[in-house]
Amino acid sequence: MITDCAECGLPCRAEVCQVCLVRSFVHRDLMSYTEVIEELRERYMCAYCGEPADNKEHVIPRAYVGEHRFTVPSCWECNNLAGSRIFLTFTDKRDHVRRKLERKYKKLLKMPEWDRYELAEMDGNLRQALLDAEEARKLITVRLEFASEFLSLNR
Ligand SMILES: [Zn+2]
Ligand SMILES: [Zn+2]
């Protein structure tokens, strides 16, 4: 039997359509994070990696449910990595973004560490490249730690 969805009024086969069902589920999940998301928003921190956030990430892709208020602050990169896959909980989505970040920087994370004596013997350009890579590795390590800590909060 086709009726109207109690939430959005679109024709559907149940009391509430599937889109509204997913939306209410994600809403409930996000409610459990209200305080921490509010704090991150005040500090302009990415909800996935802790970097400065200048984007809003739609926890359910906009294409799926239209304009809605389920957004979290995020950096450009995590916003991109989050992609358009649909997750039923914010925790699952954070886990997904964390794994994507880790995969993206796999080579950097595996790079050997050089001590300053080894570096001193190197050609200047190579030394600079390695020092830059070391800085980049420190940054991604901090971001991944933020992601892990945040994930452990609700487990
Ligand atoms: Zn509906
Ligand atoms: Zn981020």
Key terms:
mainly alpha, 155 residues, two-stranded antiparallel sheet
Strand and helix layout:
Elements: E1 3-4, E2 11-12, H1 18-31, H2 34-42, E3 55-58, H3 62-65, E4 71-74, H4 76-82, H5 90-104, H6 106-110, H7 116-120, H8 124-153
Antiparallel strand pairs: 1-2, 3-4
Bound molecules: zinc ion (2 copies).
Structural features, described:
The chain has 155 residues and is mainly alpha-helical. Helix 5 (90-104) runs antiparallel to helix 8 (124-153). The mean pLDDT is 87. The two termini are 40 Å apart. Strand 1 and strand 2 (11-12) form a beta hairpin. The protein has two domains: 1-31, no CATH class; 32-153, no CATH class. The protein has eight helices and four strands; from the N terminus they run ββααβαβααααα. The protein is elongated, with a radius of gyration of 21 Å. The strands form two sheets. It has a two-stranded antiparallel ribbon. The protein has a two-stranded antiparallel sheet with strand order 3-4. The longest helix has 30 residues, at 124-153. Helix content is 57%, strand content 8%. The structure holds zinc ion (2 copies).
